[in-house]
Design brief:
With 201 residues, the chain is mostly beta strands. It contains no helices and 21 strands.
Length: 201
């Protein structure tokens, strides 16, 4: 039930090579009485936790490298803030590895997204549900489930130059309104037939 690292007001804090294990939340960013965090994380990881990183609010946050393996979500953005994520492995099982319900801006590049196995075939690797602007580019997605599901409330986003491993699942499902400002282009994907089920004797 614990939080590994809870961060409120910080002025250019730098977290290097931190590790959270067996937590409810590995890294929790909140706004305390003095304000939210401005800073960066390099090479930080979480494992065997319900959620890796949860952002309720930040001023500006950079996340470079590291690995977030979680039971529910690797990175969940639930509040305002400018966030840049690069070179991070995001894996989750029961929920999407990346969940964006709110943000000022998210720039996510060069990351690996997916699940630890094929036991959650209906769960996408990423769910984009809200936020002022979201850019998802140059990332790789595994073949254990759907890739990116875009919600109805998304209105300003870009999904480009990503690689989706060949799988029987949809790479990108866009449920946003026709009036949304969006770019979905140059993504590599290949849909294949599902593997036949073998009968147990």
């Amino acid at each position: 039930h614990c939080v590994g690292f809870k961060l409120g007001k910080n002025d250019e804090i730098r977290l290097d090579n931190c590790f959270a294990f067996k937590c409810k939340t590995g890294y929790l960013f909140v706004k305390d009485k003095d304000g939210p965090t401005w800073g960066g994380m390099t090479g930080c990881s979480a494992d065997f936790s319900v959620e890796g990183i949860v952002i309720e609010e930040v001023s500006s946050l950079r996340v470079n490298g590291g690995c977030m393996w979680a039971h529910s979500s690797g990175l969940r953005m639930a509040g305002p803030g400018r966030v840049t994520v690069s070179g991070v492995e995001l894996k989750a099982n029961g929920n999407a590895a990346l969940i964006v319900s709110d943000c000022t801006s998210l720039t996510l590049t060069g990351c690996m997204l997916g699940k630890a196995g094929d036991s959650w075939p209906t769960v996408p690797a990423a769910r984009l549900e809200g936020g002022k602007s979201v850019l998802l580019s140059a990332c790789t997605f595994d073949d254990n489930g759907p890739g990116v599901v875009v919600g109805e409330k998304m209105s300003h986003f870009s999904i480009t130059n990503n690689v989706f491993q060949p799988s029987p699942f949809e790479a990108i499902t866009d449920n946003s309104a026709p009036s949304a400002s969006k770019v979905i282009a140059n993504n590599l994907s290949k849909k294949i037939a599902p593997k036949p089920k073998t009968e147990k004797k």
